[in-house]
Write a structure and sequence with these properties.
Blueprint (H helix, E strand, L loop, with lengths): L4 H25 L8 E2 L7 E2 L1 H17 L4 E4 L3 E3 L6 E8 L1 H6 L5 E8 L2 E9 L4 E6 L2 E6 L2 E4 L12 E3 L8 H11 L4 E3 L5 H7 L5 E7 L1 H13 L3 E4 L9 E6 L2 H16 L1
Parallel strand pairs: 3-5, 11-12, 11-13
Antiparallel strand pairs: 1-2, 3-4, 5-6, 6-7, 7-8, 8-9, 9-10, 13-15, 14-15
């Protein structure tokens, strides 16, 4: 669908209002003594806290007033249908494992999409006070160093690159083997980054983020921010990654192609 300039300005305003609403909720519980986490997973550990649920509720309250006709997809409270053709995709705390561990790599993910995919996105890190935004001609971050224009790194060989992911195992054994095939060629590999990895890619600090097992709410805001900064986000076959799954985010087309070839070769055996 075509979004007018007036509507674009309104969507940007609302996205920031959502991030503003989520910030105090997440900060109220971060590093708090006695914070409890429930396990949502039947197997393994997928934590959720009062902060996750409260932050999403705060954002939904903003949307109920500002954009009542838009649909909402949130990690904690599911899907709410709308009639406008636009959907807000919300992850109130991406990286809850990091959140309950006290590390500042978690973030609030907010995006608005139509049938073509994400149009505008925000990656907000409340504790550091950094907010990364991209879409509708915007590619910028605001934080302790003021306003910064987001621009992904220029091409460099994989042998000189930095690659990030969250879990060392990445996903299944097959997916992990494919990731590590890429990592063996890179100069530096770092783990445990959650959504902050995608913010660093958009800020020109790293070259690749490779993950698996993602959901739509994990990746749609990063897609908007990274593409606005000149980067590329696809699945491991080079197709759109809007719904999650296996995701590769790259600073530029050259390193995307180099890493994609290694992933494909590993998966084919």
């Amino acid at each position: 669908m075509t979004v007018s300039k007036i509507t674009q300005t309104e969507l940007i305003r609302v996205a920031h209002a959502l991030a503003d609403a989520a910030r105090p909720v997440t900060l109220a519980y971060f590093r708090a003594t006695g914070l409890a986490a429930e396990n949502k997973a039947d197997a393994g550990f997928d934590p959720v806290t009062i902060a996750d649920r409260g932050a999403e509720e705060a954002m939904r309250a903003v949307l109920a007033k500002s954009r009542p006709d838009d649909a909402i997809l949130g990690e904690e409270h599911g899907f709410q249908a709308g009639t406008s053709g636009l959907t807000w995709v919300l992850d109130p705390i991406d990286g809850t494992r990091g959140y309950i561990s006290g590390t500042p790599t978690w973030g609030v993910l907010i995006s608005v999409r139509d049938d073509s995919g994400p149009l505008f996105g925000v990656i907000d890190q409340p504790y550091i006070g950094e907010r990364f935004a991209g879409g509708f001609g915007v590619a910028e971050a605001h934080g302790p160093q003021g306003k910064v224009i987001l621009q992904c790194r220029a091409p460099r060989p994989l042998a000189q690159a930095t690659v990030l992911t969250t879990f060392p195992e990445v996903g299944t054994p097959e997916e992990g083997a494919a990731f590590h095939a890429v990592a063996r060629h890179a100069q530096l590999t770092r783990y445990g980054m959650d959504c902050y990895a995608y913010a660093l890619l958009a800020a020109g600090q790293v070259d690749l983020v490779i993950e698996a097992g993602l959901n739509a709410y994990d990746i749609q805001a990063p897609i908007a921010v990274i593409e606005a900064a000149g980067g590329i986000v696809t699945d491991w076959s080079g197709a759109p990654a809007h719904e999650g799954g296996r995701v590769i985010a790259a600073a530029n087309a050259a390193i995307h192609a180099e890493a994609l070839a290694i992933l494909g070769q590993s998966l084919r055996g």
